[in-house]
């Protein structure tokens, strides 16, 4: 057996805890520690059986990789510090929150030769294990809502960025000229955006503060009067299926060991953020 990858999880909030537990359960990883400046979070991590430290300065030696699950506005700072220590990084979406942060992260990855990837977990949704259409649709609609509160700006950077990446991934439209914003509307329930991506027109509907959290993908082929197909994206996998986060960690292991995977690269993560920022700028 290959030696397990020694990893640290940065951030032990609600989702950081899930990351740490999934990484610990994964046979390819050895969670060396979690990092969180909050004493309560460190106590919770220790209660779950993890070594917990307060800062990156206290990281154990010889780490191979780190998973960043901190607030979005800290992603760039943490990722840059880790890469400067020679540590490969998986950073939660959104990869960054500004063009300046994106540029510095990409420059640091190139200068340090560290691997930098983005955790766009919806790529590993079991419902999307295969591309859901035989040929590119003429129109696509993503609808995503969350019970969590947020602003119109954060709903684009937090929720819509999921589907901006998914659309690019499914349609292979990562190039800058493969995306044109057609409309952006802010309303009481959230934000709507429409974009031309390749040969498809894609609608994005997102909402924070909803009664329930759910997501759907709908599409229609180019044929006249073609039926609309709909795919729920918020179902839970069966007990025999790995969850999306476990599948994402498998993909991270693959790229760290030189294998192919669908994990979002740094460039792809940057593309999703840039598109989200362009939409948010029109609000």
From TrEMBL:
One Pfam family linked to the record: GFO_IDH_MocA
Molecular function GO terms recorded: nucleotide binding
Domain Gfo/Idh/MocA-like oxidoreductase N-terminal: 5-120
Gene3D superfamilies membership: Dihydrodipicolinate Reductase, domain 2, NAD(P)-binding Rossmann-like Domain
Superkingdom of origin organism: Bacteria
PANTHER family: BILIVERDIN REDUCTASE A
Designated name of the protein: Gfo/Idh/MocA family oxidoreductase
Species this protein is from: Paenacidovorax monticola
